Amino acid sequence: MSATDHEHSRAAGVLLLCRAEPDRVRPSARLLREPLLLAPAGEEWSVLVPDMRGAQGAENPAAITAEWAHSLTVGESWPAVGLWWDEEGAGFVVAAGFRRTVGYTWLADGSPLGEEGAMTALRARLGLDPVLDAEAFDRLTEPDSDADASARVLGLIAVLARAGLQLPPGLAPGTAAPELRAAAGGAAAAEAVEWPGWRAAIREGLEVSERGRLGQWVRGPRARALGAAEIAVGAALLASAARSGARPRGRRLVGALLLADGALTLTYDAWRSRAR
User: Fold this and answer.
1) Quick one: 37 and 117 in the same domain?
2) CA–CA dist 212, 200 (Å, integer)
3) Alpha-carbon radius of gyration of the chain
4) What is the mean pLDDT of residues 216-243?
5) 193-198 contacts at long range (C-beta below 8 A, 24 or more positions apart)
6) Fewest beta carbons less than 10 Å away: which of 63, 76, 132, 134?
7) Rounded CA separation 41/168 (Å)
8) Residue 44 — pLDDT band, cuts 50, 70, 90?
């Protein structure tokens, strides 16, 4: 990397804003296998600050931000907004599940150079106000000689603040990555996110899923009752199909599926109990 490229990468910064509490974000963040700082950023918001020095492609923060945001959310129900900036401009990406990650860019002087529909996708995926917030986003795509790229991103953050985002002090567009990490490290409840190995990562991911709204049906008394009921109904359907003179394939298929799912539920519950 040349001296010019080195100065360019030092000026770059990335923030990953996740619409979820840190406990829900941590397992996915660990799967990135990157040095990250995780901190609360308002009610049902978290912020991740990566160390750009160790990231492949750090000289192109827009591309690496899109990759990180997509990887964070591909198996999650919550969306993420990645903010990036360097000496040439700034922008955002928004990722949610398996939907296509989209983004928007402003040149250094604030000139819009965005992807059509990115603002709509941002508003929809975050569940923002379809009128007031849409109008605020539209203003960010209009020419404004008084707003450079950093001001555009600040305007975006101001809109997200209406949805509860509260960034810790010092996390501002235009700040270089080392200063961002220093500020994030001083935030309340900030923590370093490290790769714990596959076994620990899988266990933590399972524990997070079990704490979710459907967790009581994944393991525990309700899950065991459900598994036993599925086995009983599945066995009854298979027995009924065997006694029938006809060939009721649908009944046999449903019975086999219920039997298998019930057995899997009970096996998983027993395995997780032993794993603890």
Assistant:
1) yes
2) 19
3) 24
4) 72
5) 193/26, 193/29, 193/30, 193/36, 193/37, 193/38, 193/48, 194/30, 194/35, 195/30, 195/33, 196/30
6) 132
7) 6
8) very high
